[in-house]
Structures are given as structure tokens and as C-alpha cells.
Design a protein that fits this description.
Blueprint: H1 3-22, E1 31-32, H2 36-42, E2 46-53, E3 59-62, H3 78-88, E4 97-98, E5 119-120, H4 121-127, H5 130-152, H6 176-187, H7 195-205, E6 206-210, E7 213-223, E8 233-243, E9 246-257, H8 261-264, H9 266-278
Parallel strand pairs: 1-3
Antiparallel strand pairs: 2-3, 2-9, 4-5, 6-7, 7-8, 8-9
Helix pairs in contact: 3-5, 3-7
């Protein structure tokens, strides 16, 4: 077994054992990460951010008064979706391949080319190929999802029967705080998820690595009020930082902008800056 997964398991177990001792008491101050440089770079965007250091329980935020506002999770739901698929056996592993059948899952103009082909669970997660996870949703079904969402305390836990897009614009909704709580519970072992499942998630969610710090996450985005791709968009980046010999930091960034391009790269760029400001990531 590689050393890093063993270390990750040990740190997660330590977090679970010490969570009560280290978690800040109710009412402890949240560190406000706002500043002139952040305001300058928003350029009309609407930003909410929350991060939690699992070593201390300390939280840092942008607009902390809005971290309980719920929004559609969009493709950030691929994190619990991947876990559910692996835990239920709907997907036996990351290499499980599904054929893209264009008559059943027709493409749209906004589809990237790498969606229009067969996918494995790993490639569908990394490419955010919606059709693959819609197929998974059909097999898991509403009752299965509701059971898992209750187990995860995931947002409003709404997953109707016969609905394979409930995370894309509703009715499922989740707040930045609930995203952080979900990742906190996942990484500290509260949900009794198999270690092989967590290691699969770690493999496919890695975004970048620097000086022993590994940034994991998943983006998501969707239109605010229907219409075309050039209309107002909202989006996420949720994830965590693995740090050498330290417990992880979990975070959720939510942003709204006038169009998709205004938030596409911004999510990772701003998350990186805020995590660096916290000291969770080393400077560039």
C-alpha cells in the first residue's frame, strides 16, 4: 500500500478522535479573508467562500453571512455520485466503461468533444461528462439516492424518483457550509465509506500538487435563469488540501458571474489565492 494513503488514513482517524477537542466553540470568530485585492478582482462577480482547517476547526470565509444560502450543486455532485456508484456496486471501479449512445443521450452545442465518446468512471469524473452520471442516476434510483443523501446530510436531500438531473438546477440544493460539512465528514470517517472508495476519489479529484500539498476538488456550473451559454452563470469549486503531516483543509467556493467565461478559470484561481492567504497552500 503506498505511503500516502496510509498517512491519509492515519490523519483522518486522528481528526475523528480529536474533532471535539479542537473544534471551535459556537460563536468563535470566523476569519474574514476579504480585502481590497479580492474586491478588485471580483469585477462584478458574486463570491462566497468557506474553508475549515480540520486540524483546529478554524473557519475562514468571504461573505460569512451567506455561507448557509443553498444553490444547485451542479457537477460538484459528482463527488457524492462517484462515492455512491462505487459503494453500491453500480460502478465496480474507476475503469468501468459505459458506451455513449447518441440516440439515448444526444449531444448539445455546448458539449466538449471529449464528452462524445465512451467513458470510464474516471474519465467521466475528470471531464465532467454529464451523460455518464445520468446513466448512474437511473440505476441508483430515487430511493437509493435519498438514503445516501440522508446519510451524508447533503443539502436539502431532494432526489425525486425518475429524475436523472436533480443536481442540475434543482430540486437538490446545498449551501457552502453544507458542502464543507460533507467533505469534513467524508475525510474524517463519519460516513463509513470504504477506504478503497476514498482512494479512488483522491485519484480522480487531484487538481494540482506543489511542495507536498495536494489540491483536490470538483467544479460545477450552471445557468442562473435558463437561456444560452452567454447568460448569467453560477458555479462552484469544492474540495480539500492534503498537507504534509497535517490534517486537511476543506473548502467550498461559490461564484456568480455574467457568463460562463467569467467564472470558468476564476474558480480555481480565486480558491488558490484564498487558500494561500490562509496558509493552507504554499505561495506560487
Amino acid at each position: 500500500m503506498p505511503a500516502k494513503p496510509k498517512l491519509f488514513r492515519a490523519l483522518a482517524a486522528l481528526a475523528w478522535l480529536l474533532a471535539t477537542d479542537f473544534a471551535p466553540a459556537a460563536g468563535d470568530a470566523v476569519i474574514d479573508l476579504a480585502g481590497p485585492d479580492v474586491d478588485r478582482d471580483l469585477s462584478g462577480r458574486d463570491l462566497v467562500f468557506l474553508a475549515r482547517d480540520l486540524a483546529t476547526g478554524q473557519e475562514s470565509a468571504i461573505q460569512p453571512d451567506r455561507v448557509d444560502d443553498r444553490h444547485s450543486p451542479f457537477s460538484t455532485f459528482k463527488i457524492p455520485n462517484l462515492i455512491i456508484a462505487l459503494e453500491t456496486g453500480v460502478a465496480p471501479g474507476l475503469d468501468q466503461q459505459r458506451a455513449w449512445v447518441s440516440d439515448r443521450r444526444p449531444s448539445f452545442d455546448f458539449w466538449p468533444e471529449d464528452w462524445k465518446q465512451d467513458q470510464t468512471l474516471a474519465s467521466a469524473f475528470r471531464r465532467s461528462a454529464v451523460w455518464y452520471f445520468r446513466d448512474i442516476a437511473v440505476e441508483v434510483g430515487g430511493p437509493g439516492y435519498r438514503s445516501w443523501l440522508d446519510r451524508f446530510s447533503y443539502g436539502n436531500q431532494r432526489a425525486p424518483d425518475d429524475n436523472d438531473i436533480f443536481w442540475l438546477g434543482g430540486p437538490l440544493a446545498i449551501s457552502p457550509r453544507e458542502q464543507v460539512d460533507f467533505l469534513d465528514g467524508l475525510l474524517t470517517g463519519r460516513f463509513d465509506v470504504q477506504q478503497t472508495t476514498l482512494e479512488a476519489l483522491r485519484e480522480v479529484s487531484l487538481l494540482r500538487e506543489r511542495s507536498g500539498h495536494r489540491l483536490h476538488g470538483k467544479t460545477g456550473a450552471g445557468r442562473r435563469q435558463g437561456g444560452g451559454v452567454d447568460e448569467a452563470f453560477q458555479g462552484w469549486l469544492v474540495g480539500w488540501i492534503e498537507r504534509p503531516e497535517q490534517l486537511p483543509v476543506v473548502f467550498a467556493l461559490y461564484v456568480g458571474g455574467p457568463d460562463f467565461q467569467s467564472i470558468a478559470q476564476f474558480r480555481l484561481q480565486m480558491s488558490t489565492r484564498l487558500l494561500q492567504r490562509m496558509g493552507a497552500l504554499p505561495p506560487d
